[in-house]
Amino acid sequence: MGVTEDNLKDFPGEVFSDDTGKANFMVTSIDKLANWARSNSLWPLTFGTSCCAIEMMSTASAKYDWSRFGFEVARATPRQADLIIVAGTICKKMAPVLKRLYDQMPNPKYVIAMGACAVSGGPFYYYSYTVVKGVDTIIPVDVYIPGCPPRPEALLEGMIALQTKIKKSRAYVVDSPKKEEK
Amino acid sequence: MSKEELKAYLELTFPTCKFENSIDFPLLIVEKESFFAIAKQLKEEPATNFDFLFCQTAVDYISHFEVVYHLTSTQYRHDLVVKVMLEDRENPVTESVYPLWKAAELYENEIFDLFGITFLNHPNLRRIMLGKDWPGYPLRKDYSDDFILTPQS
Q1: Residue of chain A minimizing CA distance to B141
Q2: Would you call B149 an interface residue with chain A, using a CB distance cutoff of 8 Å?
Q3: CA of B147: which chain A residue's CA is closest?
Q4: Is B115 helix (H, G, I), strand (E, B) or coil?
């Protein structure tokens, strides 16, 4: 029991031992610490509009179990979610609803476009007057997952890619433009 | 009534209309001018008693539109399809059957939305699905937007 270097191997920083030889000091940056927490507790919004949602539910259930990566707390309200997985076709009637859901989510927020419809309109690209040609025409997308629908493994891959992306982001330290000295 | 009886009855009652036997439903082709009176008679006449409109739709034949009514009788269990041809493609207008069958309200809203056919005496004719500012009528054959491919020739 206790904090050892072994169970701190994911810690984004350096771990130092004290004079008893046990891990007792950690050095990291606020950014790395915040990103570590954020990326490992992404709360997805319960949002699915078609067959991709079936695969998403499968990913959430016991066989694929996205809880292993920290996604288990699917929220039914956008106020408590920080990840929206656009799982399925977005038609033009749904587009304003999706936009409002995205606007209601607190920052920082992330979007995964899951499946061909959410990426580009997919099979409905031609000869369809109702389908939005890619969800990125409405909201900014972080990760695109191709497939029709993508397998649960593909969704997990995409979500892990999002975690990697978050870990590389700079949330607190902003390079603000400095005043030019004359 | 069986199909044969219905055919005999309709040919006797509506001599101006064209009657056809199709593979599933018997078919009555009606002039636009006399349509509402005939529909009213089909519904209210005790011998036919077509009291239920179970489908209403339209077809774009490029040269004209056709509005199709599927009627059935919950008493006799016989069916009939009534077709009305609308020659005027620019401004297609026909009589609403809402006063006869309440189900027509939403059917006619949908046809108005997707084909642009106006129904007179409809209580609330509006673009039910696409919204007020939608350009054109998507189920017309000549509808086009940027995502409809036309053959290169």
Answers
A1: A127
A2: yes
A3: A126
A4: helix
CATH architecture assignment, domain B3-103: 2-Layer Sandwich (3.30)
Per-residue pLDDT of chain B (153 residues; tens, 9 = 90+): 787 888 888 888 888 888 887 788 888 999 888 899 999 999 998 888 899 999 999 999 989 999 999 999 998 888 999 999 998 888 899 999 999 999 999 999 999 999 999 999 999 999 988 888 888 898 988 888 878 777 776
Q: Report the b/e string of B30-62 with b at 16+ CB within 10 A.
A: bebeebbebbeebbeeeebbbbebeebebebee
- Give the ipTM: 0.71
Q: Does A125 touch chain B (CB under 8 A)?
A: yes
Chain A: give the shortest CA distance to residue B147, in Å: 5
In a domain, A161, yes or no: yes
Judged on CB neighbours under 10 Å (0-12, 13-18, 19+), A84 is: buried
CATH code of the domain covering residue A124:
3.40.50.12280
Domain count, chain A: 1
Closest residue on chain B to A133 (Cα): B147
Kindly list the residues from chain A whose CB atom is less than 8 angstroms away from the CB atom of residue B113.
none
The pTM assigned to this predicted structure is 0.78
